[in-house]
Design a protein that fits this description.
With 219 residues, this protein is α+β, with helices and mostly antiparallel strands. It has helices at residues 2-21, 69-75, 81-87, 97-107, 123-127, and strands at residues 27-32, 39-45, 48-51, 62-63, 78-79, 92-94, 118-120, 160-161, 167-168, 173-181, 187-193, 199-202, 216-218. The strands form 5 sheets. A 4-stranded antiparallel beta sheet has the order 7-12-11-10. A 3-stranded antiparallel beta sheet has the order 1-2-3. The chain has a two-stranded antiparallel ribbon with strand order 4-5.
Length: 219
């Protein structure tokens, strides 16, 4: 009788696991921005639903990389921080530093936002699109270390606009604003890097007037 009960318990546990008890499979969807009619892919990871593309809604103090409209279509727009805070459509918002950490912790339970600049050793690869420019298979510069996009977040290396109006690091870095200030001049942000599988959380060397990518989070 005890063996029967033990077997039944094992079967219940296995059923729980295979029917979603530990299922972290991304749930894909889409949303349309009523302001301009653009449709975006979305991805639900745990209790959060994110845009699975960089925002491409034109506001004041937003730019296409290199002032080339084609780059907006591929990578979305680059926003300064003040513009980024209000750029997301109704029902969505610019994620806080804490909300970013929730996402990273979901993808990598060992992630630690207080461990230093490297918040996770693996989440970057889970969030980057695959392939490289050199191989003709993607938009990242080689080697695009660890990229598998298992999260379906589909991070693209949209680069940045600097305070002097120059543009740099396209194909090398995806840099995303958070809504959380560090001090009067700087903000917490996240970086995906072509040369790393990990993910950076930092607040240095980025000023509020620079142009970075925006990923909106559903309210």
């Amino acid at each position: 009788m005890n063996k029967v009960k033990a077997f039944s318990l094992i079967m219940l546990v296995m059923l729980f696991l295979f029917t979603g008890g530990c299922n972290k499979k991304p749930v894909l969807g889409e949303m349309t921005d009523a302001r301009d009619g653009k449709t975006y892919k979305t991805v639900t990871l745990g209790d959060q639903t994110w845009l699975a593309q960089n925002l491409n809604y034109e506001t004041d103090n937003s730019w296409c990389y290199g002032d080339d409209p084609a780059n907006c279509e591929t990578y979305g727009r680059l926003y300064d921080w003040e513009a980024a805070k209000t750029a997301c459509p109704t029902g969505w918002h610019l994620a806080s530093d804490e909300e970013w950490s929730t996402l990273i912790k979901y993808l990598d339970p060992k992630a630690d936002p207080n461990a230093g600049v490297m918040e996770s050793n693996i989440a970057g690869g889970m969030m980057k699109t695959t392939g490289t420019i050199e191989d003709g298979t993607g938009l990242w510069r080689s080697p695009n270390v660890g990229a598998n996009n298992s999260s379906e977040f589909s991070g693209l290396p949209g680069g940045a606009r600097f305070d002097d109006g120059s543009y740099n690091v396209i194909a090398m870095h995806a840099i995303f604003w958070s809504s959380t200030e560090y001090d009067a001049n700087s903000v917490y942000f996240r970086i995906l890097d072509y040369g790393l599988e990990g993910l950076y959380r930092d607040n240095n060397n980025i000023t509020k007037t620079m142009g970075l990518s925006v990923r909106c989070l559903k309210d």
